[in-house]
């Protein structure tokens, strides 16, 4: 696919993404370009690495006494209890689960199938090429402001069906999500088919309960209309803010065709959160 | 208070292992990680916000955010130190957005950082980065530091340094490219 924007057109925005000062619109523009420009992906990865390295220029300074103790107290409060000494298997078990997840991710990446990309508050999956796309600038976006960036594969089939890319129900595009203020979603469709456009609907679950990470119980999810993805040259893209919703509350992003049927979906990983 | 962690254990454990431990809520791993990085994180926070009490808040927040995202850290993408410092920088910028009463003038600080004499003095410690930065034209180096370290947009760099927007954007872009190329060149030379 040919990039919808030229490399020259995005070069300043690309620099802004690398230094971490890009706003949501600039990020969306850059991502749309990166989706089909390998050269700029590599450029951004190296520029972002350079920009982050500049942070090492700050002189080291010792904080006041017991800074460490106050940090540990905050960590304990943030997880809803004290950080007890790791005397039981409680501390060891989650580590093994996470390591297992990391291994599984590597295996999945090697196989080129849908895989997990770990985020702080939720887990999204993406196909290997899109994961590389996301990974190439994750240092800048992934943990930006303690928020995170995610890319999810947009498919016309169910997740389990497209584990084998040859079995149909394939990837038709990518959904990008950025958790910020506001959070936003950007949908990029590569193979849009023979229709005028799709209505994009973002389904979000009720907000989490404070800092505990507990889901909002059985309260119903709600739909946020993102807008219309108008097809031109077999491709389309649309983006928008989620207003008060957060990325980790997003359950799915659906593309609805003019007849009202869901044509493609990006789902939250059922394993996530 | 917990018992002291042996120094040799502190030094032996990699940042990656400590982050994995933090992700699993291991308080010992968190303690070692905080101890190892607190001077860098607090130093950056103090540089950005200028007030010790605020800087401590920012540094604490950075460690909390790092803990939240510990399992998202990918060692293949870069060092834990810069990953953590990027989090600290963003936490500091969040603070700066809501309170502009901090006594830091980013332009003065940036010009101090990229001052050729200062960079020359720092050759012994972190020679690669300081040496590479010394090779970037000062006005570009200042613009890059303002953007990458202090979080200023092109428009803000233009306003604060008194140049047109296009000039500011070009300085940031070229400066970052020059620095990247210079770092790459030096590492290739340094490589055995």
UniProtKB/TrEMBL annotation, chain A:
Pfam families: zf-HC2. Residues 78-95 have a biased composition (Low complexity). The chain crosses the membrane at residues 106-126. It comes from the Bacteria. Keywords: Membrane, Transcription, Transcription regulation, Transmembrane, Transmembrane helix. Residues 78-98 are annotated as: Disordered. Residues 7-41 form the Putative zinc-finger domain. The keyword Mitochondrion does not apply. This is Putative zinc-finger domain-containing protein.
């Amino acid at each position: 696919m040919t990039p919808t924007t030229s490399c020259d057109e995005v070069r300043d925005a690309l620099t802004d993404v690398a230094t971490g000062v890009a706003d949501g619109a600039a990020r969306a523009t850059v991502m749309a370009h990166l989706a089909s420009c390998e050269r700029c992906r590599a450029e951004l990865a190296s520029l972002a690495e350079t920009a982050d390295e500049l942070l090492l220029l700050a002189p080291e300074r010792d904080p006041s006494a017991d800074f460490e103790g106050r940090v540990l107290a905050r960590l304990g409060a943030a997880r809803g209890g004290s950080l007890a000494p790791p005397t039981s298997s409680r501390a060891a078990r989650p580590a093994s689960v996470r390591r297992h997840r990391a291994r599984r991710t590597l295996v999945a990446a090697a196989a080129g199938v849908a895989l997990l990309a770990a985020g702080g508050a939720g887990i999204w999956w993406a196909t290997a090429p899109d994961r590389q796309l996301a990974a190439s600038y994750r240092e800048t976006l992934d943990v930006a402001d303690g928020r995170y960036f995610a890319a999810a594969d947009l498919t016309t089939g169910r997740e389990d069906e497209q584990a084998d890319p040859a079995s149909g129900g394939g990837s038709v595009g990518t959904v990008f999500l950025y958790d910020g203020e506001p959070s936003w979603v950007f949908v990029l469709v590569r193979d849009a088919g023979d229709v005028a456009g799709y209505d994009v609907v973002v389904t979000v679950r009720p907000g989490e309960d404070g800092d505990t990470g507990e889901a909002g119980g059985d309260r119903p999810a709600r739909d946020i209309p993102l807008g219309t993805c108008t097809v031109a040259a077999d491709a389309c893209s649309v983006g928008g803010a989620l207003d008060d919703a957060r990325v980790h509350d997003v359950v799915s992003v659906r593309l609805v065709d003019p007849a009202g049927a869901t044509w493609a979906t990006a789902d939250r990983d059922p394993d996530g959160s | 208070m917990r018992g002291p962690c042996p120094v040799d254990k502190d030094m032996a454990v990699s940042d990656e292992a400590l982050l994995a431990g933090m992700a699993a809520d291991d308080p010992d791993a968190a303690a070692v990680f905080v101890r190892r990085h607190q001077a860098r994180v607090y130093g950056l926070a103090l540089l950005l916000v200028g007030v010790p009490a605020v800087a401590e808040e920012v540094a604490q927040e950075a460690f909390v955010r790092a803990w939240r995202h510990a399992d998202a850290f990918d060692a293949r993408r870069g060092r834990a130190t810069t990953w953590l410092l990027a989090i600290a920088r963003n936490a500091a910028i969040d603070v700066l957005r809501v309170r502009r009463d901090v006594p830091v003038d980013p332009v003065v600080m940036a010009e101090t950082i990229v001052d050729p004499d200062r960079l020359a003095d720092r050759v012994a410690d972190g020679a690669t980065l300081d040496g590479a930065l010394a090779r970037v034209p000062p006005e570009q180096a200042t613009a890059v530091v303002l953007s990458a370290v202090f979080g200023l947009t092109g428009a803000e760099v233009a306003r604060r340094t008194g140049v047109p927007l296009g000039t500011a954007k070009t300085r940031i872009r070229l400066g970052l490219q020059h620095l990247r190329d210079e770092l790459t060149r030096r590492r290739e030379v340094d490589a055995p």
